Amino acid sequence: MGRPDVQYLDNPLIRRMPMPIPVHACQCPECLQSTDHPNWPLHHQMNLLLSRLNEQQRRWFVALESNKIGHGGDTLLAHITGMDVETIRRGRRELDAELANQPVDRVRQAGGGRPSAEKKIPRSRPR
Question: Are the beta carbons of 34 and 19 closer than 8 angstroms?
Fold first, then answer.
C-alpha cells in the first residue's frame, strides 16, 4: 500500500513512485509582507521538513518548537506551518506526558477507523 502520508502516481509504467508533497507556504505576518526577511529561509525549511514527516512527527516537532518560543508560540507556528493550534497543543500535551500513551510501531492509536463490515451471505433455502 505505501505510506499514508505520501501520494503515489497511478501510472502502471511507473512503479508506485511517490509524488512530491506540496510544501506549505508560510502565512506569518513577516512572510506575507516580503520573502527577503531573515526568517523566511528557516520557515521554508521547517515546512519542507514537515512535508516529509508523518502526522505524529509533525505534531511533536511543531510542539517542541512552540515550547522553545514560549508565549504565543502555538499561534505563530500555526501561521508558519498551517497546522491547527489545537493540534500543536495536543502535541505539547503528548510531549509533557513523555509520549507515554503513544504507540511505537504505528502512527495512529489502535481502535480507530471504520468498523469492519460483516459479510452478508445469503441463507440457502431448505429443500
Answer: no
